[in-house]
Design goal:
Layout: E1 14-15, E2 25-26, H1 29-33, H2 65-131, H3 133-174
Antiparallel strand pairs: 1-2
Length: 183
């Protein structure tokens, strides 16, 4: 490719041809097919649709009068539609509150019934589990351990009392007769 020549970009740029309005056109195919490309035809603005006019200095065409009348009506009725939607929302909220108020006793009763059923099932399982042989053995072993612990505690207390009595006797025997009577 020589300096100043254009690369072959055929197929690289597709889009809408603004002069014809056709879409998915290779915009540069015809321009680069010529040795001296003229891009002026590609860059010209598209013609305006029939029945519309472009205001001076504005690229956006004016709106069709029928559509504009519908838009004006839509804007004019917008506050009324908004009030209707707000009223519908208030009515819907009031109905929801009323339904919840009517349903509450049923929901509360269902909750109480479920709680009672769960409690009964829990108690039945506990009674079943306590009746298992291994659990009975564990309960008896625990009772035996409690009795052993109580007996050991009583024996420790009795030893402490005996030790205290022996110390008191020894003390009294050592110092008997050494008291001075003041009279």
């Amino acid at each position: 490719m020589a300096f100043g020549s254009f690369p072959d970009l055929t197929g690289a740029f597709t889009g809408t041809d603004t002069s014809t309005g056709k879409r998915n056109i290779d915009l540069f195919k015809t321009a680069f097919a010529a040795k001296n490309p003229d891009l002026r035809g590609i860059l010209t603005p598209s013609p305006t649709p029939s029945g519309t006019t472009l205001p001076e200095g504005n690229a956006i065409p004016s709106v069709d009068p029928k559509i504009q009348s519908w838009l004006d009506l839509y804007k004019a009725t917008s506050p009324e539609r908004l009030k209707e939607m707000e009223e519908a929302s208030r009515i819907s909220a009031a109905l929801s509150r009323e339904q919840l108020r009517d349903l509450y006793p049923f929901l509360s009763a269902a909750g109480a019934e479920t709680t009672a059923r769960n409690l009964a099932a829990s108690q039945a399982y506990r009674a079943f589990a306590e009746g298992l042989p291994s659990n009975v053995q564990n309960i008896m072993a625990s009772k035996q351990a409690q009795a052993t612990s109580a007996a050991a505690g009583e024996a420790d207390r009795a030893r402490a009392v005996a030790t205290q009595q022996a110390a008191a006797k020894d003390y009294a025997g050592r110092f008997a007769g050494q008291y001075i009577q003041v009279g």
